[in-house]
Design a protein that fits this description.
The chain has helices at 41-49, 77-90, 103-114, 144-151, 162-174, 184-197, 201-214, 243-252, 274-284; strands at residues 2-8, 11-18, 25-29, 53-57, 96-101, 119-125, 230-235, 257-261. The longest helix has 14 residues, at 77-90. The protein is 36% helix and 17% strand. The protein has a single domain (2-284), classed as Rossmann fold, CATH 3.40.50. Helix 5 packs across helix 6 (184-197). The chain has an 8-stranded mixed sheet, with helices on both faces. It is of the alpha/beta class and 288 residues long. It has 9 helices and 8 strands. GO terms for molecular function: triacylglycerol lipase activity. Residues 24-266 form the AB hydrolase-1 domain. It holds the Pfam family Abhydrolase_1.
């Protein structure tokens, strides 16, 4: 396990690698406002033990990567999308398997359509189709309880009060979990690492929303044009992107495989699902 800071196009990004550099590379792409800590080191080690070179990284404004002033991000959504390619370039890797969750799944889809030569495969977790779909049937909206969270967010903590920040971040995860129970012990471990590693947590929780909202991309991307082998993993109880978002992805992408993750909400797969997820990704990224 090796952590490093890499300067790419003037921006400092933090990344960590696991396993044999000579093995096929898997690049893990997190969701909005999420540092690489959600890709638990033990999960990464399980993938590495299956003969993969695993890379996880902090998005801009998360973890130890470059931080912008709160409310004034110095980058665009296009930068977040391009950063995985910048990381591959910095590591001297021509191609990689990419695994994206939530916003990271949107990034993976865009890379597959705009730069398919850099991707060996893609795995999409807890995400939704981007661009134009062939099936015009509307996808279901978020669960009302999540809509209520967006409409009436919890008051921010005092950011210099570590205990209050920990509770705020743990509580923020509860509504996104599936019905199998909230793995509070695991979430608390992850959140402690996030709090201890982050340059500026307020920037993490503010700036991504701003750059995503500001994105103005008139290009029409069509998932039917994807040529990269795709695997879709989706929780059966995702309250943000209900299950039909995942099945729609698999239906739109030619040849995509689909695996339902029983009882999972909108989240990075929790420990109880690691064996299922690691096995699925290992099969999908096997030499063809």
């Amino acid at each position: 396990m090796t952590e490093q800071l890499m300067t790419v196009d003037g921006a400092e990004l933090c990344l960590e690698t696991f396993g044999d550099r000579a093995a096929p590379a898997i690049l893990l792409i997190g969701g909005a406002a999420a540092s690489m800590d959600w890709w638990d080191a033990e999960f990464c080690e399980l993938l590495a033990a299956r003969g993969r070179f695993v890379i996880r990284y902090d998005h801009r404004d998360t973890g130890r990567s470059v931080a912008s002033p709160v409310g004034a991000p110095t980058y665009s959504a296009a930068d977040l999308t391009r950063d995985p390619i910048r990381i591959l370039d910095g590591l001297g890797l021509d191609r990689a398997h990419v695994v994206g969750v939530s916003m990271g799944g949107g990034i993976a889809q865009e890379l597959a359509l705009r730069d398919p030569g850099r991707l060996l495969t893609m795995t999409l977790i807890a995400t939704s189709p981007i661009g134009t779909r062939g099936d015009p049937t509307p996808l279901p909206p978020m669960d009302p309880r999540i809509a209520a969270v967006f409409g009436n967010p919890a008051p921010e903590p005092a950011w210099d009060d570590r205990a209050a920040v920990l509770e705020y971040l743990v509580d923020a995860e509860r509504d996104y979990e599936g019905p199998r129970g909230f793995d509070e012990a695991w979430v608390r471990r992850v959140v402690r690492r996030i709090v201890d590693r982050s340059r500026d947590l307020r920037a993490s929780l503010t700036n991504h929303d701003l750059v995503i909202a500001a994105e103005q991309d008139g290009d029409e991307l069509r998932l039917a044009d994807v040529t990269v082998p795709a695997l879709v993993l989706h929780g059966t109880d995702d309250p943000l992107f209900p299950l039909p978002h995942g099945t729609a992805l698999a239906a739109e992408i030619p040849g995509a495989a689909f695996v339902a993750l029983e009882g999972m909400g909108h989240q990075v797969p929790p420990p109880r699902l690691w064996e299922v997820v690691v096995s699925a990704i290992t099969r999908h990224t096997a030499p063809r």
